[in-house]
Amino acid sequence: MLKRLLKELEEYRIKPKKHLSQHFLIDKKVLTWIIEALNPHINDIVLEIGAGTGILTEEVAKRVRKVIAVEIDSKLVKLLREKFKQNSNIEIVEADILKIKIPPCDKIVSNVPYHISSQIIEKIVKEQKSSGWNKAVLTLQLEFARRLYAKPGTKEYSRITILTQYYTIVKPYRVIPPRAFYPSPEVKSQIVIMKPKNTPPKVEDEDKFFHMVKILFTQKRKKALKVIRDKLGIRDHTTLAKIAEIVGNLRVYQLSLEQLIKVYNYCKEIINQQYSP
Ligand code: SAH
Fold it and tell me: Ligand 1 centroid to 113 CA: how many Å?
């Protein structure tokens, strides 16, 4: 796979760009892992984020109805268009994924450009409803992947954990060594599988809830009650007493999603007032 890749890159005079996190897959086994995790169905429409030279695109397209392959780099787009000009079920879209809407699709697959991992996750989970995707298979840097399926009270538990677990169920899958990519990244990667929750939790205003989470997690090591009092400016004694019942003596990073939702529900009037996007 490496030989073919190097030949293509040379032919199109492409030098892997660091600032676009270009690390191309060169390991057959990893390719089969990703396909296995995706479990493609012949009727599926699959969105691929960051198609690169189309290594994954090609394998997925053989097994599904349609692949929508988004790529930002115009040189790679040119390569993809020529490579797949005979493949009527591959649609190549030249775009910054962060600037377009997640199109209607069944599944998402991506070897995620790691410099924008957080933004991509945030976008796909928030747009799950409008897009309708029901499975996402994402290859991420291991450290980052761990944050998505982290449990309360661990050091990986953070704002992006809450955001992801609010909307989806995340399962860790295979760990991938750096040498599976060219050029090799510095660290290991991991495939994760995300599925939207059947019944996601409900809060009155999601933007405001996530705004509260963001504020609280800027001081995640501190006692939750104190941070809620000081950072959200909750002064009212009855409200504070109620919140103390919910959070006890816990620190911010020890709060479960359910506890965070309860806190929001108790002080949403105040949070809603403070926050105008
Ligand atoms: N899927 C390919 C390439 C992975 S590297 C493979 O596995 O070999 C990540 C890819 O994402 C690169 O091709 C890079 O150009 C692309 N990319 C980076 N930022 C992007 C963005 N904002 N929108 C769309 N694609 C992006």
Answer: 5
